[in-house]
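PROTOCOL LOG
Step 1. Enter all chains and additional molecules of the complex.
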Amino acid sequence: MTQASDVVSRPRQLRRDAAENRELLLAAAAQVFAEVGLGAGVEEIARVAGVGVGTLYRRFPTKEALIAELVQDVLEKMSVLAEQAVAAPDGRGLEQFLESSSAYQAEHRGCLPKLWHTSPDNEAVVRVRRTIAALLAEAKRHGQVREDITATDLTMLMWSIRGVIETTRDVAPEAWRRHLALLVAGLRPAGTPLGHRPLTRAQVDQVLADPT
Amino acid sequence: MTQASDVVSRPRQLRRDAAENRELLLAAAAQVFAEVGLGAGVEEIARVAGVGVGTLYRRFPTKEALIAELVQDVLEKMSVLAEQAVAAPDGRGLEQFLESSSAYQAEHRGCLPKLWHTSPDNEAVVRVRRTIAALLAEAKRHGQVREDITATDLTMLMWSIRGVIETTRDVAPEAWRRHLALLVAGLRPAGTPLGHRPLTRAQVDQVLADPT
DNA sequence: CTACAAGCGGAGTGATCGCTCCGCTTTTCG
DNA sequence: CGAAAAGCGGAGCGATCACTCCGCTTGTAG
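Step 2. Run joint prediction.
Step 3. Record the structure below.
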């Protein structure tokens, strides 16, 4: 919510040991969630971090808030990856971003179920979206992607990759790469028309807003 | 486990009201799971079925067993859909099956998380697999699908569609159709090589066997 | 019709979860 | 150094879940 005033609004500053524990908890949560899913108990997270559950709850008001923080980190990283991809030549940036963002998701699979349920007003989300739109336009300009693909199609594409990542994570953690290759092949021009309306921006927003 | 001797091994026959309640419970479970997910409480299911929880547990040893029964129904239906698609002309059967099976999954989304975690030895699974392999071969023979696509690619494709169905279910329950169109476009010949090894059969089996 | 096996509802049980509270410890700063 | 503020661990609380148990009801065979 009050993301911008985060540091300022805290009562001055965290004590050194407290700040350290906060980072330990975030790292532990990422690891534990990646291993056993979001259903992992807070006790387990605290244990891995080497602190008590009391400490966890002094740094994060709820388990939900801890997850939200992890999600925020991932979103911010995705934003960076998107901006890095803009530099790619010949309209290949989109492809590069899909690859790098999927790889990053595969490594941070713990919080993926919540990744797509953040406020659509989230600053990082807005930034990623804007950059993806630019990448898509550039890819089209270079004839890398068919004209009837929309930005919402790419959002849906990332939802689909998440499904593959989650399903194959333990058995074949790189399997999503082949699926992405298939999807990229589908994005290429000269295919038959897709024949179904793309999602509207409002629909994507609704999915993001759903707290389920 | 002892699927084959199911009917025989029950102590003769269910009383009329008991058999009726069993069906009511299955229908209620399908509905409730579809609405609120597998996390739904057994009490809610019993309430919708119009019976007590005691009755539920007299028909199904655990909640898990109830879910397994629903999954079995879905798998059997998918097997039928696959066999129906064999009749399609010009190698279009594969496409038809992907469409009909996805539509069916969208309507029975409740148990989807467990759908892909059944024993690989399950008779319905074996049947679906065999038929899909035939559909794929026929599609290739008619030049509808590129040669480097394997049966495991199609399994992965269905995992990906599940992700889209689950994510968009409340907002745009038909969104998966456009995603499938994109995937089908990717399956078509004349694309660049996919560049990643497909899953092995053994890997798919491992995913199925994982009870998570 | 009758007797009894089978079925029934739902309060109760134990396990597990997210979260709180408080007596003690550590850091910070004049 | 010393005092006060900040942080700490983990026992314990209430809520929730899957599941059981038992006194009453209902279907059915003879």
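Step 4. Note key features.
The interface with chain B takes residues 37, 116, 153, 156-157, 159-164, 166-168, 170-172, 174-175, 177-179, 181-188, 190-192, 194-199, 203, 206-207, 210, 212 of chain A (CB under 8 Å).
The two ends of chain A are 18 Å apart (CA to CA).
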